[in-house]
Amino acid sequence: MNSDQVLQTIQNENISFIDFWFVDIFGELHNVGMPSYAIDENSFVNGLEKLDASSIVGFKSVNNSDMILMPDPNTFKILPNDYDPGNRKNARIFCDLYDGSTNKESRYTRDSRGIAFKASEKLKEFGLTHTNWGPEIEFFVFDAINVYPSPYAATHSGGGSGYSIESKESPWAKGNVSTAIDIKEGYYPSQPKDTLNGFRKDVCEDLYNYFGIKIEAEHHEVATSGQCEINLVYDEMITMADNVIAVKNLVKVKAKRKNKVATFMPKPIFGDNASAMHTHQSLWNENRNVMYDKDDDVAQMSQTGRYYVGGILSHASALCAISNPTTNSYKRLVPGFEAPVNVCWGLANRSTAIRVPMYNRNQEKSKRIEYRVPDPTANIYLLEAALLLAGLDGIKNKIDPGDPVEENVYKLSTEKKREYNIGTLPVSLKGALDSLSSDSNFLIDIFTKDFLAAYSDLKYKEYTAFAQTPTAWEVSMYADA
């Protein structure tokens, strides 16, 4: 849509309010609503003078905080009724962030959507027109989460702390014989054990009918207690990032309406599988998939595609600061739970960090790589931008990833991993941030030193805060020592 079409649709559909969406540097969604009669052509030309950036974590200081929201008319969508159970009809528009004027040069350097856009512009230097992205979004939907004795105590611990998860599917719940799913036994169960079958379908229908987001598949995932997955049909870079934000928000809104709790926290259940966001990606020049080479006997992967893989693997540790940006992320990245911890690639091999799907040969359209490291707490705009820049760095510097690993990497000995030159990912958020500090040159041109410094500073503080908090496990283990 253009702005004229948006204004006409607002009138024709009797839209009451427009919600203007944008994300902070961590990918958290923010929103300001305006009545439709307050929106006109000037709103799209000069933007909205509505943002106090000092109130958004990681943005600006109070002495220089005025910013402009620039609506992107192409993202106009009418919202499902779950967003407003009254009789109002609402719509949403994503916004770009500008520094007090609407000149192109003044786009805010800490605008995640802007960073993704700048990264996509780099494709032209490599003779590429666009990239396609297809995330697999995993999450949990619980009946309830109880924090003891209070949410405050959970972060300060002085009064003791703990939490419990309620789910009709959990093996620890009483009286749920017909719906109980044991630890690690939740992959593709049928009803009645899959209690969220209808919930996922409701989400997918609204994603398509209201947001125009096409779904490849939905299903229950491996963990107990309501682990779900929604796979999105591939799309171009910015569109897909917008779509992921919409998916995550709709899941939370629908869960709330049903008095449930949706979480994209990677590892909420000790001893069970965690949530990932495996990210499929491919490179294109118009209608030609640049990653595809029909004459390659091994993976039908072009040399350009191999260099792209090499770039991501060579920067994998630094990428973790963006692809796995929370302390909880590293409770997922441990052996034994199908999460990748080894830096290597393989064909149809889910034990490697990068997998080249091999369902069918001679299929140019579907040739892609799947990066299996990210989790759903990642800011999707930054994730796509960082993966693209790492891959392009591999192409630029001809970084060969070596031969694909065909064995189960989880079962390889230390000696064998050394022989195959297989590295390991960081084991903590601090380790990832340290890696980013020493390996950020491939990002600086687009992310800027200012953004990386602000992002890292906040994440180091987050790590320190949680590192200083005693856990219930530590008390039980060491209190009598």
Automatic annotation (TrEMBL):
<feature type="binding site">
    <location>
        <position position="365"/>
    </location>
    <ligand>
        <name>ATP</name>
    </ligand>
</feature>
<feature type="binding site">
    <location>
        <position position="370"/>
    </location>
    <ligand>
        <name>Mg(2+)</name>
    </ligand>
</feature>
<keyword id="KW-0479">Metal-binding</keyword>
<protein>
    <recommendedName>
        <fullName>Glutamine synthetase</fullName>
        <ecNumber>6.3.1.2</ecNumber>
    </recommendedName>
</protein>
<feature type="binding site">
    <location>
        <begin position="273"/>
        <end position="274"/>
    </location>
    <ligand>
        <name>L-glutamate</name>
    </ligand>
</feature>
<feature type="binding site">
    <location>
        <position position="278"/>
    </location>
    <ligand>
        <name>Mg(2+)</name>
    </ligand>
</feature>
<feature type="domain" description="GS catalytic">
    <location>
        <begin position="112"/>
        <end position="481"/>
    </location>
</feature>
<feature type="modified residue" description="O-AMP-tyrosine">
    <location>
        <position position="410"/>
    </location>
</feature>
<dbReference type="GO" id="GO:0016020">
    <property type="term" value="C:membrane"/>
</dbReference>
<dbReference type="GO" id="GO:0006576">
    <property type="term" value="P:biogenic amine metabolic process"/>
</dbReference>
<dbReference type="InterPro" id="IPR008146">
    <property type="entry name" value="Gln_synth_cat_dom"/>
</dbReference>
<dbReference type="InterPro" id="IPR014746">
    <property type="entry name" value="Gln_synth/guanido_kin_cat_dom"/>
</dbReference>
<dbReference type="GO" id="GO:0046872">
    <property type="term" value="F:metal ion binding"/>
</dbReference>
<keyword id="KW-0067">ATP-binding</keyword>
<feature type="binding site">
    <location>
        <position position="372"/>
    </location>
    <ligand>
        <name>L-glutamate</name>
    </ligand>
</feature>
<feature type="binding site">
    <location>
        <position position="221"/>
    </location>
    <ligand>
        <name>Mg(2+)</name>
    </ligand>
</feature>
<dbReference type="GO" id="GO:0005737">
    <property type="term" value="C:cytoplasm"/>
</dbReference>
<dbReference type="Pfam" id="PF00120">
    <property type="entry name" value="Gln-synt_C"/>
</dbReference>
<feature type="binding site">
    <location>
        <position position="332"/>
    </location>
    <ligand>
        <name>L-glutamate</name>
    </ligand>
</feature>
<feature type="binding site">
    <location>
        <position position="136"/>
    </location>
    <ligand>
        <name>Mg(2+)</name>
    </ligand>
</feature>
<feature type="binding site">
    <location>
        <position position="338"/>
    </location>
    <ligand>
        <name>L-glutamate</name>
    </ligand>
</feature>
<dbReference type="InterPro" id="IPR027303">
    <property type="entry name" value="Gln_synth_gly_rich_site"/>
</dbReference>
<keyword id="KW-0436">Ligase</keyword>
<feature type="binding site">
    <location>
        <position position="350"/>
    </location>
    <ligand>
        <name>L-glutamate</name>
    </ligand>
</feature>
<feature type="binding site">
    <location>
        <begin position="280"/>
        <end position="282"/>
    </location>
    <ligand>
        <name>ATP</name>
    </ligand>
</feature>
<feature type="binding site">
    <location>
        <position position="138"/>
    </location>
    <ligand>
        <name>Mg(2+)</name>
    </ligand>
</feature>
<keyword id="KW-0597">Phosphoprotein</keyword>
<feature type="domain" description="GS beta-grasp">
    <location>
        <begin position="13"/>
        <end position="102"/>
    </location>
</feature>
<comment type="similarity">
    <text>Belongs to the glutamine synthetase family.</text>
</comment>
<dbReference type="GO" id="GO:0006542">
    <property type="term" value="P:glutamine biosynthetic process"/>
</dbReference>
<feature type="binding site">
    <location>
        <position position="216"/>
    </location>
    <ligand>
        <name>ATP</name>
    </ligand>
</feature>
<keyword id="KW-0460">Magnesium</keyword>
<dbReference type="InterPro" id="IPR008147">
    <property type="entry name" value="Gln_synt_N"/>
</dbReference>
<keyword id="KW-0547">Nucleotide-binding</keyword>
<dbReference type="GO" id="GO:0005524">
    <property type="term" value="F:ATP binding"/>
</dbReference>
<dbReference type="InterPro" id="IPR004809">
    <property type="entry name" value="Gln_synth_I"/>
</dbReference>
<dbReference type="Pfam" id="PF03951">
    <property type="entry name" value="Gln-synt_N"/>
</dbReference>
<keyword id="KW-0963">Cytoplasm</keyword>
<dbReference type="InterPro" id="IPR036651">
    <property type="entry name" value="Gln_synt_N_sf"/>
</dbReference>
<dbReference type="GO" id="GO:0004356">
    <property type="term" value="F:glutamine synthetase activity"/>
</dbReference>
<feature type="binding site">
    <location>
        <position position="229"/>
    </location>
    <ligand>
        <name>Mg(2+)</name>
    </ligand>
</feature>
<feature type="binding site">
    <location>
        <position position="350"/>
    </location>
    <ligand>
        <name>ATP</name>
    </ligand>
</feature>
